[in-house]
Design goal:
This protein has about 90 residues and is an alpha+beta fold. It has helices at about 20-35, 35-55, 75-85; strands spanning about 1-5, 10, 55, 70. Strands 3-2-1-4 form a four-stranded mixed beta sheet, with helices on one face. A hairpin with a 3-residue loop joins β1 and β2 (about 10). α1 (about 20-35) runs antiparallel to α2.
Length: about 90
């Protein structure tokens, strides 16, 4: 799966990593719903770090369609709230 982190670029992630990422996404969803700013910032950073660590960056000139778009690390709780679905940022 191709994942875009807004403002950074794209990474290719193996589907096997989505179990780990969904755990962080569930935490993030709970923190957004409760308004926990500190927890939200910590978990968003952990989610993005996991995507960077587990994924392989695509070249800047690659024109692959992104199947998933994640906010940048400096996104606010309100920014992310607008991006969320019932499943969080990551479907499934």
């Amino acid at each position: 799966m191709i994942v875009r982190i807004m403002g950074e670029g794209q990474v290719k992630l193996d589907d096997a990593h989505f179990i780990e990422l969904n755990k962080l996404d569930d935490e993030l969803l709970a923190e957004v719903e409760s308004g926990d700013e500190a927890g939200f910032a910590r978990t968003l950073g952990a989610l993005l770090e996991a995507v960077r660590r587990l994924g392989a960056p695509l070249p800047d000139d690659a024109l692959e369609p992104s199947e998933l778009i994640l906010p940048s690390e400096d996104a606010t709780l309100e920014d992310v709230r607008e991006m969320l679905s019932d499943d969080g940022l990551i479907p499934g």
